[in-house]
């Protein structure tokens, strides 16, 4: 599952449908442009709470399957704590991967 998520993140980055960084992600969440948010599994408690609260308020799914190194590697950077997908198509494909993993 992680490999599929990493691949989708890479494709989204290359096609300009991804934003990274906590402040940018918070802006995208507030504008309801973020369709799904990736929060590093090893994010600080304060960052995790802020992202979960803002996304939850707007009904945006938060995925915590990857750590900061995996998120960074997926988009060609060293480390990332918060990444958001701003495209419905990519978000739908990612949700299918996540739900498929939960089923089996």
From TrEMBL:
<keyword id="KW-0687">Ribonucleoprotein</keyword>
<keyword id="KW-0689">Ribosomal protein</keyword>
<dbReference type="GO" id="GO:0005840">
    <property type="term" value="C:ribosome"/>
</dbReference>
<feature type="domain" description="Ribosomal protein eL8/eL30/eS12/Gadd45">
    <location>
        <begin position="8"/>
        <end position="86"/>
    </location>
</feature>
<protein>
    <submittedName>
        <fullName>L7Ae/L30e/S12e/Gadd45 family ribosomal protein</fullName>
    </submittedName>
</protein>
<dbReference type="InterPro" id="IPR029064">
    <property type="entry name" value="Ribosomal_eL30-like_sf"/>
</dbReference>
<dbReference type="Pfam" id="PF01248">
    <property type="entry name" value="Ribosomal_L7Ae"/>
</dbReference>
<dbReference type="InterPro" id="IPR004038">
    <property type="entry name" value="Ribosomal_eL8/eL30/eS12/Gad45"/>
</dbReference>
